[in-house]
Amino acid sequence: MLPEYFIPTDGLWEMPLWVAHLTALLDTAGIDSVFRDLSRTPAEPNACSEPLLEATTPGDLVLMSPLAQNFRLALDVAKHLEHAGRRVVLGGNMAPLAPDGAVHAVHRGQLDATFVRRLVGLASGAGGDLEKPLLPGLASERITWAPDYRHLGGYEGRVPLLRLNASHGCLYQCSFCGDAWSKQLTLVEKDALKQEVDELTGRFPDTRLFYIGDKTFGQSREAVANLLDVFRDRPGYRFIVQTHVMQVKDWIVDAMLELGVVAVELGFESADSQMLKRLNKLSRGLDDYTTKIHKLSDAGLKVVLNMMGGLDEETEAAHGQTVDWMRENSSALWLFNLYNFVPYPLTPDFPRLRERIFNWDFADWREDVPVVYRPQHVSPEASWDLFQEKIAAAHDIIRTPMTIPTSSAQEK
Asked: Cβ(260)–Cβ(239) under 8 Å?
């Protein structure tokens, strides 16, 4: 079992990795930085502004990357900071929805050392918007620098796992995915990966579980080989990976076992292959998916389904097929991560769905509440009911003892 995989009610899944990446990039631009963790601060503009004002002086840049449910709060805090002479730079997947003039500068897209210098120059001057264009496919430039975790040492013992990327981005273009905006795959050089692992294992020596953050484990053979090389002489670590069903091949399974992978997350949005086709998710059909999850399970890997409700193309019939499939294949399923769809502005479907969004209160843009738009085939209320049925089916599966054809039975 993986007790680290389960998080206390008031605990954190992981530390804010973007801080470590941004810290290293700011270092390359010759800019010092500090970090303020507001996760335990009351979600109120004055309360959140106070520690930021104490840590900065007029003219300083304040970089924010808010989640959807904190977006309005971030804009309100930015107003306080701008009034006090700070210059707020907004990034993250909600940045495209920032009203004109709400912050000093907005960044869209990935960051590298060159773009950080340009962004700082822009923010230090008149402000405005900066967007890095992305060319689809494998990026010619690689990440040669390692994140710097000096601001995150206080998370030791507070998070159950460490996240590590051997590549960034994804080449698939699923229309509902909040990560599809990257359109490309950028590899991390092996030396940079080794440097990051050296720092992580030094700063967090008691954390032995790594979550490989590559959106699709196995899209790059080189990235997988780099992970194997870096951890070859570091025994005792275990790994969780996420991947696309199309990547589940013999060499991938062998590499997972060699690395020490114990759990594999796979997206499973629907048992209706035609629905997936309309959502631009590549698939060889339900039979192939079924074969792949049993292949992983039979190899001794725990299969975790990342399931999404509230999708625009979902019908009651497709939902019924999905729940039936879950129950029929329960013996191969260990755990479920369930999310209700949110039309984040960087999802490919956002322009198409925007006119059907009826709730622009960003506090409700969450993956554990009803959808904020009107799906094509069912009402928002009916969509929520279907999502609750998926949750109930998942609960039944993980709580039902699994019969093992040996002398005894054990719980999943």
From this structure: yes
